[in-house]
Description:
Layout: H1 7-32, H2 43-97, H3 104-127, E1 129-130, E2 133-134, E3 143-146, E4 151-156, E5 163-171, E6 175-179, E7 196-200, E8 203-207, H4 213-226, E9 229-234, E10 251-252, E11 260-267, E12 275-278, E13 282-283, E14 289-290, H5 292-303, E15 319-322, E16 331-335, E17 338-342, E18 348-353, H6 357-360, E19 365-371, E20 376-379, E21 387-390, H7 410-463, H8 467-493, H9 496-503
Pfam family, one: Flagellin_N
Protein name: Flagellin
InterPro entries: Flagellin, Flagellin_C, Flagellin_C_sub2, Flagellin_N
Amino acid sequence: MRINNNISALRANTNLSRVDRRLDKSTQKLSSGQKINHAADDAAGFSISKRMRTQIHSLERASQNAADGISVIQTAEGALNEVSAILVRVKELTVQSANDTFSGDDRDAIQKEVDQLLAEVNRISTDTDFNQNTLLNGEVGRRSVTKNTGVEVIRSTEIVPDGKYKLTVEEDPKKAVYTGGSVNGADFGENSKVQGRVIINGEVVDIKPGDSAETVLNKLRTGAERAGISLAGNGGGPDANGEEVYGGYTAEALDEGIELLFVTKEYGSKAKIDIKIEGTATKDEDGNTVSAEDNADKLAAALGLPRKVDPAPRGKDAKVTLDEGFEKTATVNVDGDKVVIKDRDGFELELKVNDYTTENDKGGEVELTVFDAGYMTLQVGANTGESFDVSIDRIDTETLGLSKINLRSSKEAENAIEMVDKAITMVSAERAKLGAYQNRLEHTILSLDETTEDMTSAFSRIVDTDMAEEMTEFTQQKVLSQAGTSVLAQANERPNTILTLLQS
């Protein structure tokens, strides 16, 4: 029997300390609800759980990103819905204007409404944004640029590979131009008997006896506008520094004695200036009949114009050949100043060629670059590369082909019907693409949420405390702790028996 070292008490104390440590861990697990509170609890599980926790949070953020992407698409699609409604109204007005039951003044009123509607289309294009990201002006799409001042890239489809492309503008687009004639006060005025009709591209301008020179000029200008022609005084030209609106000519104020300058608003072979002068039979002061031909000749002489401009001046389409970067299967379609290059699988590149390109751009050699950039990239996954690009085409009157729509004559309105139909089809196609994006994102969100749920379940099995199992462990350790405390107390009492031995 020893009193310096109570081995029984030491053993009881050691076991009690072990039980207390297990009881502390069990208490922490029960109170925190986590199986792993320190790396020492489960080193491998701790490392795995941290990666899984990061992945879960990233998936949750990716799901929110996809939801934000849907909001962007809905914003753009909502704006395009208004554009569609505007185009439906424009189509209605176009059909209305094509009906010859309406007068020129009626069509002028129709044109004013159409101008305002199309101005709103352009406003929607520039002002529709999401968190300061403009959506419909082409910024959320392929970047296609050229340094050549004479060529503008209107749009390129997603199929167009990024890289450099070269083409040559062999001939510039031209507007139809006619110069000649003038209006002099000596031939018109209160006592003038000159009368007849000037027909400009089918638009009739009635000149009545007594019309002043100013009245005649205003009538000619109004008639020309209705026929899709700009009328001004001829200040000379054409030259590379001339005004684009007037086909390179320098325009002067439309005034008495100034040579007239007729210029179509459109480029290309379809643009023409057809002017003819007609008269009607009348009676003079003596009751004698003045034939329609004589009245027409007098009006033509007063205006300094031929009875019929023959041949009617026509514009020219640009002439473009493809060089580097384009496949042999690519085709070029030119309509005035618009150049559309198409190839297989939806390859489409639309350019606008300005007048005097051959003079300004080294003989017409044009180099353009298509960048694989500009898209709105949505990060819809937790890892690198788990994203997809959203492309929203530029939608305005230029890309829709409606920038110069003219409803001031029935013939022009008839041509405009097809133009508006194409614009409606283009907007509908863009909305369909956005709808497809939205459907994809909705499925993406469902997939991400399902993955997050499954991963959270796996994460829970690693780190969450099984309360029933841990409560059993806690109870066991608590009983052992109480038993150990009791045994330790008894072990500490054992040396007292030595006193009995000493006393005896």
